[in-house]
Amino acid sequence: MVSKHLARNRERNSLIADTYAENWEKYGQTIIFADRWYQCEALVELLRQQGVRTDVLFGRQDVNAGSAEARVATGGAGYRPNRTRRS
């Protein structure tokens, strides 16, 4: 999966941290969004190594809901009905 590959890419995470650390006066207080919890942790560590005061907040849900059909049938995690609203 592409998002997992990107989240684990150390060079990419270093680039993100380096870019912010080098330009913190320009960017000011910033929120960095990441797709995976482990990328959040990696970015915080890299930023702290450069003296950037930072913290992390993420949500994490461990679930084994079975097949996609099972999740849809039960309205499980990640289920979003595809409905078009008409006025």
TrEMBL record:
Protein name, entry field: Transposase IS4-like domain-containing protein
* Gene3D superfamilies referenced in this protein's UniProt entry, alphabetically: P-loop containing nucleotide triphosphate hydrolases
Species classification: Bacteria, Thermotogati, Deinococcota, Deinococci, Deinococcales
Q: Which organism is it from?
A: Deinococcus seoulensis
Annotated InterPro entries: P-loop_NTPase (IPR027417)
